[in-house]
Amino acid sequence: MSAETVDSREWVLRARPSGRPLDSDVELIARPLPTPEPGMVRVHNLVMSVEPYMRGRMGGESNYAEPYPIGEPLRAPTVGRVTGSDDPALPAGALVLHDFGWREHTLVPVGECRVLDEHGMDPAVHLSVLGIPGMTAWIGIDRIARVVPGDVVFVSSAAGAVGSTAVQLAKIRGARVIASAGSPAKVDLVRDLGADVVFDHHDGSITHQLRGALEDLGASGLDVYFDNVGGDHLEAAIRVINDHARIALCGMISIYNEATPQPGPSNLIKLIWRRARMEGFLLRDHLDARDEFEEQMSGWIRSGLVRPVHTEFGGGVAGAWDAFAGMLDGSATGKAIVPLAADGAGSSQVLGGTYSPDKEVQR
Amino acid sequence: MSAETVDSREWVLRARPSGRPLDSDVELIARPLPTPEPGMVRVHNLVMSVEPYMRGRMGGESNYAEPYPIGEPLRAPTVGRVTGSDDPALPAGALVLHDFGWREHTLVPVGECRVLDEHGMDPAVHLSVLGIPGMTAWIGIDRIARVVPGDVVFVSSAAGAVGSTAVQLAKIRGARVIASAGSPAKVDLVRDLGADVVFDHHDGSITHQLRGALEDLGASGLDVYFDNVGGDHLEAAIRVINDHARIALCGMISIYNEATPQPGPSNLIKLIWRRARMEGFLLRDHLDARDEFEEQMSGWIRSGLVRPVHTEFGGGVAGAWDAFAGMLDGSATGKAIVPLAADGAGSSQVLGGTYSPDKEVQR
C-alpha cells in the first residue's frame, strides 16, 4: 500500500436545517487523508448522487434513518475506484459502491464497500437504475403495488430518478401509465419513456388533469398510484381510485421542505369504499431481492427496455451543495448525479441533461 | 297461504339529509300489506338493527352502496318469523334474516331470505356478533390486520358493535389490547370484555392517552390499529405505530355527519418511515368466508369467549328513527337493536343496556 498522503475536500454538516436548507448549514473543508489502517481501503470517488432523503437526515427529525452527526462529513451513495488497499478482494483499480460521498477521496471500511461489475456501463448507472432509485421503483411496482397487465397506473414526479424508472417498469409489466411531471421538457421526456398520458402539474388542478387523462385512456379510474409527492397529488389520486386499488407510498417530496406539517387528504374514507390498500415501503426491507433485481434490471438496460435518466451537476465536489439544493427544487431530471472526478463525467447516457451554477438546465 | 291482509307501519325516505339527518327527512306511514305473490314470503319482523352506513345510503353520496330511493321504505338488517309462504324451504314459523327492516311486516323475495339456526340464542345475536358487525370485526382482525400473538392492537369506538367484537377477537388471537370509548360506563364495559387498557376519548388528547396506554403496557408502539373513527384517532394512532404496522380502516364515524370534508392526518409520511400498511375493507368482499366465520363465532359465543353487547331501543317500529339518531350520536353501547315485536325484546343477553325516548341509557 502506498504511504503517501492524499489531499481531499469534503462537506461537513454545521447546523441542522429547519425548512429549506441554508448554505450556512454546511461547510466545504480541505484535509489530508491519512494512510488507510488495516481493514480500510482508500477510494478515489468518481460520481455521487444527491437524494431527497438526505434532507431528513440533515434535519435530524424522528425518521427512518439516523441523523447525520453535526461536525462530520455528509454521506451519499458514491461510485469510486480503489487506490489503496491491502485486501486481495478489493484490489487497486476495482470499481466500488459505498456511502462515503460528499468528498473527493475517502477511506472506507472493507465491509462497507461493494465491488461492482462494470458491465461496460456509465458508473453513474449504479446510482440510478441499477442502484437505490431503480430498485426502489422495482420494489414499489412489483412487490408493493403488484402491477399486473391491464392495470391503470399513475406515477407522480415521473421525471425523477424513481419515477422515471417506475414508469418504464409499469410499461414492462403491461400497465397503461398516467404520469405527472414539473415542466414541458420533463413531460416530453416522460412521454419518450413510454407513459401513455403525461401532464404538467403546474397546468391546473391535479384532480382535473387526472380525470382528463383517465378519459383519454377510456379508463374508469386508477388501479395503482405510485406516490412520490403526497399532498394534493395523493388526495387527487384517492379521488379516482378503482375498487381494490393499491397506493405505494414511496416519497412525499411535497413536504420535505415544510417546517410545519400540512393537513393530509380529506378523503381517506374512500379507501374503505374502494377497499383500497395504501402501503409505505423502504428499500432496506427488501435487500434479499438484490440479486434478482440486478439480473432483471441489467438485462432491461442492455436491451434498451429501461433507459437511465441522469442530470449531471457541474463543479465537482465544490458544486455538490448546489446540486443538492437544485435537486430539492426540482432542477434535476432523473437521477441527480455529481461527478467528483474527471473520469466520472461525460457519459453518453445522460438523458436528463446537465446543469451548472452558470447555466440553465440543458437538454 | 293465508289470504288475509295485514296492516303494517313503515319508515319512508322523503328527503336526502345533508349533515345531521332531520326528522323531516323521513315519514312513518301505515299501509296494508298485500298477499304475497309466488316467489315472495311474508315475514313478521322481530328485531332490526340501525347502523352507521345507513347515513351514507340516505344521503346518496357517491359511496360503496346504492342510495336508498326517495319515496321508498328504508332498509335494515332484520330478523323475523315467516307468517305466509308457499315455499317448503321457508315454512311458516321459520326464523329468517333479511334486509327489509324499518317496518313491522314485510314481503321478501325468497332469494333474499336466509333461514337461521336458532341455536337457542337471542334472535338479535344474528344482527350483532353472529351478523354483519361481528363478521366485519372478524375480517378486520384476521384478514386485514392479521393479528398475531403478542401484537399491540388499538381499537377505537370499542364499545360499538364492531369495536366490542374486535376487542374480544384480538384477545382471542393473543394480542394486548388498547381501546377507546366515549363514556365512563362504556370504558368499564370494554374493560370487562378483556381490553388491557381503556381510555375515554373525552379525557384529553388521543395522542397523550395513547402514549400513556402504551407506557402502561410497556410497549413501544402499535402493531395494529382497528379504526372505526378516523380523524384525530387515526392521526394519533399513526403517530405511535411500530415498523410494519397494519391499520384496518373499518369506519370513520367522526365524519359521517360532516357536510364538508375535514382535513386528513398530517403525518401520513410515517407510513413510509414505518413501512406501514393502511387498508380499507368491506364485508361484501369476504362473503366466501361466512361458513368458517359462523362456525368459529358460534363456538366462541357458546363458550363465553365472545359476549354480545346490545342496546335495545324502545318504542317498537315508531321508535326506530330515534334509535338511528341515537346510534349516530353515540347513545348505543354495542349493537343498536330495535325490537319491532313483543317476542323480539327482553333478552337476557343485553350487556349494553336499554334506551327509550323517555329515559337515559340504563346499565
TrEMBL record, chains A, B:
Keyword annotations of the record: Oxidoreductase
Domain Enoyl reductase (ER), first and last residues per copy: 21-338
The protein's enzyme class: oxidoreductase
InterPro entries on file: ADH-like_C, ADH_N_2, ER, GroES-like_sf, MDR_fam, NAD(P)-bd_dom_sf
GO MF, any single term: oxidoreductase activity
EC numbers for this chain: 1.-.-.-
Matching Gene3D superfamilies: Medium-chain alcohol dehydrogenases, catalytic domain, NAD(P)-binding Rossmann-like Domain
Protein name: NADP-dependent oxidoreductase
Lineage of the species this protein comes from: Bacteria, Bacillati, Actinomycetota, Actinomycetes, Mycobacteriales
